[in-house]
Amino acid sequence: MNRTIKTFALAALLAAFTAGVQASAMPKGNAAKGKEASAACAACHGEDGNSKSGEFPKLAGQHADYLYNSLVQYKSKQRKNAIMGGFAATLSRQQMADLAAFYASQKGLDHKY
Ligand code: HEC
């Protein structure tokens, strides 16, 4: 491959990547709707996202974009987990944003390092 082609290929790749990132911009989440939807999640993650078991990650107080992206990635199978893949498959992007807004608004662990 000569230099021009390499440069072009890199630019095309970058453009495709940027487009992908823009396409997955997070919708504005509604925490009240997220709270309603979270009934399906409470058994494992706790009512407010502070799960009681080490088997299940704590969602309370986590950044909304982190939670949202995790759900998007479970649904797209970019992140693989049998349980969460099943749940995420049933959620729309808006519902994911609502759930993310709800858990992000809950009090999480105090981080003392
Ligand atoms: C049957 C138990 C169970 C239920 C119900 C459940 N989850 Fe999970 N969830 C898990 C497990 C186990 C993991 C860790 C999976 C992994 O290793 O990726 C997880 C991971 C997650 C993560 C990633 C957390 C992180 O720190 O990376 C998010 C976000 C999440 N769940 C949201 C939800 C939402 C929203 C619901 C309800 C729609 C839900 N979960 C329902 C078991 C459950």
Question: Brief description of this entry?
Answer:
With 113 residues, the chain is mostly helical. The protein is built from 6 helices and no strands. It has helices at residues 3-23, 31-37, 42-45, 64-76, 82-89, 93-104.
Task: Give the termini separation.
Answer: 50 Å
Q: Which stretches are poorly predicted, pLDDT < 50 over at least 5 residues?
A: none
Helix segment tally:
6
Overall structural class, as computed from helix and strand content, comes to mainly alpha
Radius of gyration: 18 Å
Briefly, what CATH class of the domain at 27-104?
Answer: Mainly Alpha
Largest sheet: none
CATH topology of the domain at 27-104: Cytochrome Bc1 Complex, Chain D, domain 2
Give helix and strand order, one letter per element, not per position. Answer: HHHHHH
Strand content: under 5%
Number of extended strands: 0
Q: Notable features of this structure?
A:
mainly alpha; 0% strand; binds heme C
SSE topology:
Layout: H1 3-23, H2 31-37, H3 42-45, H4 64-76, H5 82-89, H6 93-104
Heme C binds at residues 40-41, 43-45, 56-57, 59, 67, 70-71, 81, 83-84, 87, 99.
Structure report:
This protein is an all-alpha fold. The chain contains six helices and no strands. The protein is elongated. The N and C termini lie far apart (50 Å). It has a domain of 78 residues: Cytochrome Bc1 Complex, Chain D, domain 2. Helix 2 crosses helix 6 and helix 4 runs antiparallel to helix 6. 58% of the residues lie in helices and 0% in strands. The site of heme C has 16 residues, from helix 3, helix 4 and helix 5.
